[in-house]
Design brief:
Number of strands: 5
Number of helices: 8
Structural class: alpha/beta
Order of helices and strands: HHEEHEHHHEHEH
Strand order of the largest sheet: 3-2-1-4-5
Helix content: 40-55%
Amino acid sequence: MAIKTKSRQKKFDTRIDFTPMVDMNMLLITFFMLCTTMIKSQTLQIALPTNEKVEKEQQNKVKQSEAVTIIIDGKLDEKGLSDPNEGMLFYYDGMPETDKLATTGESNMKQIAFGNNTGGAYPAIREILQERNKEVCLKIADLKKEWKEMKFSKNEELNDSIYNEKAKAIRNDSTLKRPVVIIKATPNASYAHVVSVLDEMQINNISRYQIDRINEVDSAMMILLQGKNLNK
């Protein structure tokens, strides 16, 4: 009688070849790298104060008629932190009138409001800056009309590029009357208030501005002005 043997199936080891997948991934990475548009990061250039004598000499050479000093002040909350909702701005043209301050207690400092506060108790910072940068603002406004009408180029990117180059040339035109804005902040000023003032530099096409430290004369002028405003 014949003996029946069980049929044994041959087992094969399963193996997946990932080589084609690696090649495909490399092709995809290369494709995205070549097709992606690289965007340059937009950074804000600020001239920070230094302790060098050269920097101080350059500041002293600025014409008094061109200099506008803006001081940012604020109030502290219960935790001793700057309250972003309690911000105050002060400004004066040219140099502080120290002689007048010592004799009569008067100064050329005035209080202003943030943004474009038309019709408020104080004139707005935008109104002050636009008045002192009038020539540049008018030329930029005419240039913006041409940009909106696509007069530089029918290609949108090229039209934007030409507009930016022309606007930059106008902002840096030394033949135009342009202010030099000096921004100072008290210890009570919040970061949000400083950023708001820096935004106004961009909105009003101010090309020359810098951040400086507040001094004793500025503090004395602020105290006198705030005391007068409270007595009104």
